TrEMBL record:
Its main location: mitochondrion. This is Small ribosomal subunit protein uS13m. Pfam families: Ribosomal_S13. Keywords: Mitochondrion, Ribonucleoprotein, Ribosomal protein, RNA-binding, rRNA-binding. It comes from Platanthera zijinensis. One of its GO terms (biological process) is translation. Residues 92-116 are annotated as: Disordered. It is found in: Mitochondrion. Part of the small ribosomal subunit.
Length: 116
């Protein structure tokens, strides 16, 4: 089992499916990376050589924001909302739903943290 940009790739899965498991890489970006490298989407991950996997990881990290950079950016956005005392930042701090969901009878998982 190999890791590509922090995502575990299952050896029996096809390249077109395994490449979308990386954070920040969707269907279209996976197709772009594969076409640049000349890799077919129907090949299994265990049939790729180590150099092909390294090229795939390097190409995806070079052109797109993936894994830890993406997560760091999301966390920075949340911290910015909190520092500006925006509504979304306050809801993040409280652990409440952000996007107008009902909280009287739902949102049990986020309210569970508050009760303890």
């Amino acid at each position: 089992m190999s890791y590509i940009s922090g995502a575990r790739s299952v050896p029996d899965s096809q390249v077109r499916i395994a490449s979308t498991k990386m954070d920040g890489i969707g269907h279209k970006k996976a197709i772009q990376v594969r076409s640049r490298l000349g890799i077919s989407g129907n090949i299994k991950m265990n049939e790729l050589t180590k150099s092909q996997i390294d090229q795939m990881e390097q190409m995806s990290c070079q052109d797109h924001v993936v894994h830890w950079e993406l997560k760091r950016g999301e966390r920075a956005d949340i911290e910015r909302f909190i520092s500006l005392s925006r509504y979304r930042g306050i809801r993040h701090q409280d652990g409440s739903p952000l996007r107008g969901q009902r909280t009287h009878t739902n949102a049990r998982t986020c309210r569970k943290q508050i009760r303890k």
